[in-house]
């Protein structure tokens, strides 16, 4: 399969360009932002090239109109490396009063205060698009026969065949959704995530803001983070884990600054808590859930391969959850939605809540598969659905157990819960 032929972001980018003067595409390096933008761009400036950046910066100082005078939509890659560019594009959009003028792409964001100012100043002029590594549907491993959009219509009948087994899933977790890895022989495909991990820990966390960070410290923190994927681990918890698993530790301020650097380059993408209206006064845990943007970052940090996951199914279950969250996030964005996590003080926890802009939502439990684990997931979904106050908010549009294995995707007749292998899920 050609890696970029069916990116969900292609349609989102075209849609956003029709509605705004400029679109900013953000996301981790190597996820395909530039290639996606190039597919639609009529002209481009690639600022990752030092000579191009130098010439463009000089021209921008002398004549803004000339610098931004390429055919529309004009792609400007790694825009954040030229500080004055944001305001220049903003003013150009205001003057031209036309849609679809610019596409900016970048693999890093400014600090939080600068980011807030950028969002404020871009309102009405810019649309934002977050790209992530490829879903199994985009890379061709999932047949996409069960559409997430269709589940919101609660179809009475779902019966589709799954083509992936547990060994396939273990490989796909470790390979990740990196476009350059798709279609490569297995050994070379698996190497891409390790190369990404090396680039992040040796270069990117320092280059993002110029603050020198020791590579082995970043590696230790990312190993700890990997061990806490899918959990609401506090900075104190991560520090304690570092003390227990490494010879030296980091203080909490250092951990926070390192995590902020990883957030800026889109390596980590934590999941916010969902806060529904409940019948009882159950306290909801509001801490974010820890996730890397792709599960392969965690396996690379821990030095694990597919065989290691198959030997430790508990760990594999956690990393499979991270892969499902990645795919659900991409699908939800295409549906004008977001993905949340639910946990309350009683310990009731739901892995993912896909909440759309129109107020519809679906509850999702992630399990490796097998009858007992599926039943466990169904019971969790039922318990959460029973706690929701449907007088004050909608009932869930659907409930789904998302699995790694299983021959079929189907709807359970006794309770209407969908059991869907990830190898069948699409947008």
Tally of helical segments? 17
Range of helix content: 40-55%
Question: Can you tell me the overall shape?
Answer: globular
Structural class: alpha/beta
- What is the total number of structural domains? 2
The radius of gyration is 22 Å
Largest beta sheet: what is the strand line-up?
A: 7-12-13-11-10-9-8
Largest sheet, described in full? 7 strands, mixed
Instruction: Please state the average pLDDT score.
Output: 93
Per DSSP E runs of 2 or more residues, the count of β-strands stands at 14
Question: How much strand content do the residues show?
Answer: 15-25%
**N-to-C span:** 18 Å
Give the uncertain stretches in residue-range form: 1-5
- Quaternary class: single chain
3D structure, described in words:
The protein has 2 domains: 8-130, Rossmann fold (3-Layer(aba) Sandwich), CATH 3.40.50; 136-426, no CATH class. It has 17 helices and 14 strands. The chain has helices at 8-19, 33-40, 50-62, 64-67, 85-96, 112-122, 136-139, 148-151, 166-175, 186-207, 215-227, 235-245, 252-264, 295-301, 306-311, 313-334, 371-387, and strands spanning 22-26, 43-46, 74-77, 102-106, 126-130, 146-147, 159-161, 337-343, 349-356, 361-367, 398-403, 408-411, 418-421, 425-426. It has a 7-stranded mixed β-sheet with strand order 7-12-13-11-10-9-8, with helices on both faces. Helix 17 (371-387) links the parallel strand 10 (361-367) and strand 11 (398-403). The longest helix has 22 residues, at 186-207. The two termini are 18 Å apart.
């Amino acid at each position: 399969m050609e890696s970029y032929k069916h990116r969900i972001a292609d349609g989102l980018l075209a849609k956003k360009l029709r509605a705004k003067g400029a679109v900013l595409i953000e996301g981790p390096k190597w996820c395909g932002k530039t290639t996606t933008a190039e597919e639609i761009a009529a002209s481009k400036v690639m600022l990752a090239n030092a000579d191009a950046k130098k010439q463009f910066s000089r021209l921008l100082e002398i004549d803004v109109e000339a610098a931004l005078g390429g055919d529309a939509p004009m792609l400007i890659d790694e825009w954040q490396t030229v500080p004055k560019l944001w305001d220049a594009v903003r003013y150009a959009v205001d003057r031209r009063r036309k849609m679809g003028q610019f596409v900016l792409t970048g693999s890093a964001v400014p600090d939080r205060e600068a980011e807030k100012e950028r969002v404020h100043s871009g309102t009405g002029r810019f649309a934002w698009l977050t790209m992530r590594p490829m879903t199994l549907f985009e890379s061709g491993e999932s047949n996409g026969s069960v559409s997430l959009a269709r589940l919101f219509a609660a179809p009475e009948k779902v019966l589709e065949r799954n083509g992936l087994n547990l060994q396939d899933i273990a490989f796909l977790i470790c390979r990740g959704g990196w476009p350059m890895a798709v279609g490569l022989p297995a050994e070379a495909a698996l190497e891409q995530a390790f190369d990404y991990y090396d680039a992040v820990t040796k270069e990117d966390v320092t280059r993002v803001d110029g603050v020198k960070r020791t590579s082995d410290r970043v590696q230790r923190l990312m190993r700890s983070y990997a061990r806490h994927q899918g959990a609401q681990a506090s900075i104190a918890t991560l520090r304690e884990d570092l003390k227990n698993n490494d010879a030296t530790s980091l203080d909490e301020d250092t951990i926070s600054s390192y995590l902020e650097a990883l957030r800026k380059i889109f390596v980590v993408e934590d999941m916010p808590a969902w806060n529904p209206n409940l019948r009882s006064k159950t306290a909801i845990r509001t801490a974010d859930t820890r996730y890397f943007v792709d599960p392969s970052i965690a396996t690379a940090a821990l030095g694990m391969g597919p065989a290691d996951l198959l030997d430790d199914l508990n760990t594999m279950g956690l990393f499979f959850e991270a892969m499902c969250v990645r795919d659900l996030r991409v699908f939800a964005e295409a549906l004008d939605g977001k993905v949340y996590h639910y946990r309350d003080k009683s310990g009731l926890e739901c892995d993912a809540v896909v909440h759309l802009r129109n107020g519809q939502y679906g509850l999702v439990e992630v399990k490796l598969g097998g009858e007992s684990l599926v039943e466990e997931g169904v019971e969790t979904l039922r318990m959460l659905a029973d706690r929701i106050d449907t007088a004050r908010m909608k009932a869930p549009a659907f409930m789904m157990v998302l699995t790694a294995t299983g021959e079929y995707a189907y709807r359970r007749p006794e309770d209407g819960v969908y059991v869907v292998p990830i190898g069948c899920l699409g947008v």
